[in-house]
Specification:
two-stranded antiparallel ribbon, alpha+beta, 49 residues, 2 strands
Length: 49
Amino acid sequence: MTALCSRCGKRWIISILQHIPRSGYICPHCAVRDRLVRAGIIKEGGERD
């Protein structure tokens, strides 16, 4: 079974037994990026000086 990431639009192969939330699936790449942004390790994209 495949799922479409609601953030980046990539398709990922997931287990048929995995529960997909109603608000959309977030791929592992986007989930890790969110954790790194919250931890302050990387900065979210925005305006440059």
